[in-house]
Amino acid sequence: MDLSNFKMTEEKVNNLKPVIEKILSRQYGREIKFIELTIGGITVKVKRRGLVDMNNMGALELSNFFIKVEMNMVLGGRSKIAEFARKQHERYWNLYLKGGGKVTEVENPMVLKNGYGIADPQEKEPEIISMCDGCNDNIVEGQGMLDWGSVHLHDESRCIAKYVRRDSIKKIAGEQ
């Protein structure tokens, strides 16, 4: 392969940036983002978020959008994102009441990987707390459990019944 005519450009560095960030993020086990990256003498920088002129209707649309996000997140049990959405709704509603104005840009938390640093509980494996003595499955973080010292059971009737039956003698009442 002849690379003698290869020329690094800003577009190529911008295309490589997310690839390199992903490789390093996997290697170091945490999200890595470059503020500035130089390859082959070409430097790219992350553009800083600036002020955006927001008209009255734009503010109203964003306010309504964040109301919907808040409701969906409350229903989905994602309270931290719901709280963020509520604050954004209030921010844009107040801007609407003022008739518009300048605001700093905001990213939709639904499209960001962790919604502004809020960990998604579905992205990590839940921690194993114990083994259920009824069904012999793992009891993981967030599940209901019964703790009788050395005996741990899921807080479910089938697990309790399996545990009791295993260490019991089945008889018919009234017979010996």
Commentary on this structure:
With about 180 residues, the protein is of the alpha+beta class. The chain has 3 domains: about 10-45, no CATH class; about 50-105, no CATH class; about 130-165, no CATH class. Helix content is about 40%, strand content about 20%. It has helices at about 10-30, 55-75, 80-100, 155-165; strands spanning about 35-40, 40-45, 50-55, 100-105, 130, 140, 145-150, 150-155. The strands form 4 sheets. A two-stranded antiparallel ribbon has the order 1-2. Helix 2 packs antiparallel against helix 3. The termini are far apart.
Number of strands: 8
- Name the shape in a single word: flat
Uncertain stretches of 5 or more adjacent residues: 107-112
Amino-to-carboxy terminus distance = 89 Å
Q: What integer is the average pLDDT?
A: 77
Question: Helix proportion of residues, in percent?
Answer: 25-40%
Please give the largest β-sheet.
2 strands, antiparallel
So how many helices?
Answer: 4
